[in-house]
Amino acid sequence: MMMHHLSRVIPVLRLLGLCFSLLAVMLLIAHFALQYPVAASTVKAWMASHRLGWFIWRLMLYAATGWGVWKIWHAPGFRAEYRRPMIRMLIISSIIVLICESVLLGRGA
Fold this sequence. Notes:
Elements: H1 2-35, H2 37-49, H3 51-73, H4 83-106
């Protein structure tokens, strides 16, 4: 009985640990950006001057993700009942990517 409860609690604790770790990293980055504003603005200017390279990098990541989705879709164990949820995830993910890209490309970052 106790093992059943632990098997449900452990994934939640891992997720919370991951979230807190990401929060700590983001707060650490913000702390250093506030402590060293000149260096932070230099990094920002470097990122802006290389925005085409970053755009190509993101396109490569999108292509790799699309290839992975294609491989999953054509996998032998991919059944018909998985198609609708997969399509929903792809539509929502595509909308999020389009919004993020329009924000990045719209402000020239």
